[in-house]
Amino acid sequence: MKTLSQPPNSSKKPKTGSSQSVDSSNALIDIAQHDVDGVLHLFDTSLEGLTETEAKQRLGKSGLNEIAREKAIAWYVQLLKTVTNPLSLLLIVLATISLLTGSPTAALIIFVMVIFGGLLRFSQEFQSNKAAEKLREMVSATATVSRKDATPKKEKGITAGKEIAVKLLVPGDVIFLSAGDMIPADVRLIATKDLFLSQSTLTGESLPTEKHPELPDHNEKNPLELVNLCFMGTTVVSGCGTAVVAETGSHTYLASLAKTVSGRKPRTSFDKGVNGVTMLLLRFMLVMAPLVFLINGVVKGNWIEAFTFSLSVAVGLAPEMLPVIVTANLAKGAITMSNKKVIVKNIDAIQDFGSMNILCTDKTGTLTQDKIVLQRHLDPYGQESTDVLKYAYLNSFYQTGLKNLLDVAVLAHNQELESLDIEKNYQKFDEIPFDFVRRRMSVVVEEMGKQHILICKGAVEEVLKVCTQLKVDDKVLPIDESVRTKVADLQQKLNSEGLRVVAVAYKIMPTDQSHYAIPDESNLVLLGNIAFLDPPKDSAAQAIKALKGHGVEIKIITGDNEIITRKICKDVGLPVQNILLGSDIESLSDDELASSAATTTIFAKFSPTQKAKVIQVLRKKGNVVGYMGDGINDAAALREADVGISVDTAVDIAKESADIILLEPTFRTLTVTSSLVLN
User: What backbone phi and psi angles, to 5 degrees, belong to 449?
Assistant: First the structure.
């Protein structure tokens, strides 16, 4: 066990790239496996938190809770780096020789060409280096912390803790979380009440994630899947909780993402091609110039004249116009693409885009609309049922707790139920809130003063537990084992189609009951299921077909599960060759992963760093790889790809990391662009 003299992140040395991410992930996974008492002992803290003295001591060892900032590169250094590639250096050397040998005009032309190309690239790279700053701006300014010897403030008689600057948080601090808070560090939960978080900044998935302090599965290797951990930069959607700060500053999961999008972008296929041509020309000069020098000297006997002539040959072989020709053609292509609503941030990416043979893409928001839609409302046997929609609507309309994206999708069907005049005929009487143990919630409505109706919706297996009857074709029948099997089979069938399923049940109650509680959720009548889907974009299927016609292979890399992803692939006409889960790659070497990646269509439940790793291994095998994404979780992969493609509606960090931005976020725009480049 670690003690106060060695808090969990104080002894770590800063690391870079994926090694830091792996180190941070392993530490978090280890922390998640401890129970509450074990976590408190691990951090040498208590439920009341640290004292002010202890906190100051730890702050001196762990440092401020801030994502480490790289020292800004001076603009003149950055400008100098743009002209230190092999081709530019070769041209500078030849221009200098021309100047020394009495050819100032040639020297001036070459110098102008080099400076023009350098300035163009400098303007692009100067803007793209702002990407890491976008991540740092996500962290909130203050946090509510419990300190043993501090006077706690009270709000409405409830101890609310002490507000301190986020940068002063240390490992072992006990903090309080509530709706609307941004998580200020990587934390281990020790108590919660109906706590739901949005992790879309890290996973890209829209639906809130339920969090609680229970111990996770020992086999889970992805920290983002651990239910008792919350990460810096994510947001509390509803509920409240208490947590112990586990990692701060540069040791957080978010900081590992910042590392991946800072610094120079890896050399792309275009960069390697230009450098290869340059080295070929240089080798040719090193052979030809000495040969011309020797032959001319032997034949004419004037070695000074022979030396001057051989230098002239070397200068003549130099493609001083090549940078201008390449830049001019790429710039013309960028202008043409802008007319098709495509913005090219890095003109070198046009060549890589045309050479691309693999396009990896996120699912949510790229293949799909990133909008949850109510697709089906079915009775227990799978037939369409208006009653199921009606009761689900009443539940979502009158609940006062978290209205998540599923509720919003249900409420979007208000026109279908307009004739029922719900607000006039049904009034809310009571509510039994959701909690993660029951995984269901109920609303009690009064129907025109006649009767009370308890309407319950939630996880299918949890709702089914409290049902003794079901309603089919206006008949109420008893539930037996055969019925339970049919209901379970229907849920499995809907899940296999990529649908998220919620069960709906009801119970008629007398009007003389004045209060409702959890025990009233018993002997319910199962009405059926409502099923949701994030539907694919209309343009996706046609675009995938067109890209395939251009010789581009499509691979899906997503944080979502494999069942839903397989369904989306089927809907857009993308054959699934193989599926690889994020948990599967932890034990694979780079060579093994590269071999598997070559034959895999779906990479599911992948973390941001795992996405980037797939791009790396595919490129090492000689592929020209593009990546299309629009979230912070895609930033590392966008930067690692030969060509990063994002959309104008994406978050700033994704747009900063991308080389090409689509003003219309559709695959159709992408295929039009592909046709322009290839033709």
Answer: 75, 5
Question: Could you tell me how many residues make up the chain?
Answer: 679
- DSSP sequence for 89-114: HHHHHHHHHHHHTT-HHHHHHHHHHH
Strands (E), 563-648: 579-581, 602-604, 625-628, 643-647
Environment class of residue 564 by beta-carbon count within 10 Å: exposed (0-12), middle (13-18) or buried (19+)?
Answer: buried
Choice among 186, 362, 370, 659 that is catalytic: 362
Quote the Cα angle for 90-93-95, to 5°: 105
Per-residue b or e along 358-397, where b marks 16 or more CB atoms closer than 10 Å to that residue's CB: bbbbbbbbbbbbbebebbbbbbbebeebeebbbbbbbbbb
Strand partners, 374: 532
Tell me, what amino acid is at 618?
L
Which residues 6+ apart lie within 8 Å of 183 measured at CB?
177, 197, 230, 231, 232, 233, 234, 235, 236
Looking at beta carbons, which pairs linking 272-277 to residues 24 or more positions away fall under 8 Å? 273/351, 274/85, 274/87, 274/326, 275/85, 275/86, 275/87, 277/87
Cα distance between residue 23 and residue 8, in whole Å: 12
Does this model's pTM top 0.85? My answer is no
The helix or strand, by DSSP H or E, that contains position 617, with its residue range, turns out to be helix 608-620
Residue from 241, 255, 254 nearest 210 by CA: 241
Q: Cα-Cα-Cα-Cα dihedral of 179, 182, 185, 186, to 10°?
A: 60
- Opening angle at CA 565, ends 560 and 566, nearest 5: 150
Q: Find how far residue 270's CA is from the centre of its chain.
A: 27
- In whole angstroms, what is the distance from residue 421 CA to residue 265 CA? 58
SS3 674: helix
Report DSSP state, residue 475: E
230: helix, coil or strand?
Answer: strand
**Location of structure tokens 């001036």:** 108
Closest CA to 278 of 117, 128, 129, 125: 117
Which amino acid is located at 444 in the chain?
Answer: V
589-613 pLDDT, tens per residue?
A: 888 999 999 999 999 988 888 898 9
What is the full DSSP assignment across 27-57? HHHHHHTS-HHHHHHHTT--TT-B-HHHHHH
Q: Cα-flanking dihedrals φ and ψ of residue 489, to 5°?
A: -65, -40
533-556 pLDDT, tens digit per residue, is: 888 887 788 888 888 888 899 999
Give the span between the Cα atoms of 506 and 487, in whole angstroms: 16
Do the bridges between strand 440-447 and strand 451-458 make them parallel or antiparallel, or are there none, so unpaired?
Answer: antiparallel
**Cα angle, residue 611 at apex, residues 610 and 612 outer, rounded to 5°:** 90
pLDDT in tens, 472-519: 988 999 998 888 898 889 988 898 887 889 999 999 998 888 889 999
CA dihedral 83, 85, 88, 91 (to 10 degrees): 140
Would residue 648 show up in a list of annotated catalytic residues for this protein? Answer: no
Closest by CA to 423, choosing from 452, 401, 443, 397, is 397
Amino acid at 31: I
CB 47 within 8 A of CB 145: no
Integer Cα distance of 104 and 95 in angstroms: 8
Residue keyed to tokens 């043993």: 148
- Contact (CB, 8 A) for 300 and 108: no
Closest-CA residue to 642 (of 624, 628, 658, 666): 624
